[in-house]
Structures are given as structure tokens and as C-alpha cells.
């Protein structure tokens, strides 16, 4: 395994583990403030899909060479990730947690309704491309599209009262 490949894969694994820990803390705090979860039934499927994506990157990518153009795209996505997480602050989580307060409307949320989903769509495609795994990029892009079809519908339904002011 090349050092660049090891660093790239290690970054993804550690980043995702760190995000799960942060999400757990944020979720607990939000629930304690009176928030509630929707779409919990599809959450284990989403976690399994993302875990399989990471496993696929490691299993099929550990002997691959890093493609630096795709790595540059991945780095740009990480800047966007920091912007999204910083904007949401303690409201960021991996679950659909509805807090009966005004929605975040600053940062990337001024431009996109779902910037985090947009980012994840891009990451799921770009990360495998860093290692030249086009088939993995396509496969998980399709699986993620199906997951987001379910997830975004659940989130939109739950957030509709907050968007139209009837909450």
C-alpha cells in the first residue's frame, strides 16, 4: 500500500468515526432540548450502506494509486464539509432530528436546501475515483440516490411546518 493511499483511507475512516461520535453527542443534546427523530426506520440501512462504501474503499482500494486530480476535488469537498458543520454547529447530526425552532438559513443553506446531502453525493462518487474505482463510485452513487429519495422525503415532510411557519 502506498503511503498516499494509506493516508487517504485512514482519513476517511477516522473522519467518519469522528462524525458518528459528534452526531451521537449532538443528537442527545437536541433530544434533551425537545427535538424528536423522524425516519429512524431507514437509519440502520443508511449506516450499513455507508459502512459498505467505506469497506469497499478499503478492500478494493488499498493497493491502488491515488489520482491527485480527484484528490484535489475531495479536498475541496472537505472544505465544504467544514463549512456545513460549522454552520449547523450543535444541530448537525447523521439522523433526522427536528428541533421546533427556526431552520438554519445562513452559510451554504442560503444557496441549497440540502447542502450536506449534496456534499455526501459528491463524496460518495469522488472518494472511489481518488483510487480509480469507477465501478464503486457508480454503484454507491446509485444506492445513495435510492437512500436519499427515502430520506429527503421524510425530512421534507417533518420540516414542512417549520418552513411554512405553522410549527
TrEMBL record:
TM segment ranges: 42-61, 68-86, 117-143
Topology term for the membrane: Multi-pass membrane protein
CC per GO annotation: membrane
UniProt GO molecular function: protein C-terminal S-isoprenylcysteine carboxyl O-methyltransferase activity
One Pfam family, short name: ICMT
Keywords recorded for this protein, A-Z: Membrane, Transmembrane, Transmembrane helix
Subcellular location per the Swiss-Prot or TrEMBL entry: Membrane
Main localization (coarse): membrane
Protein name as it appears in the record: Methyltransferase
Source species: Maritimibacter harenae
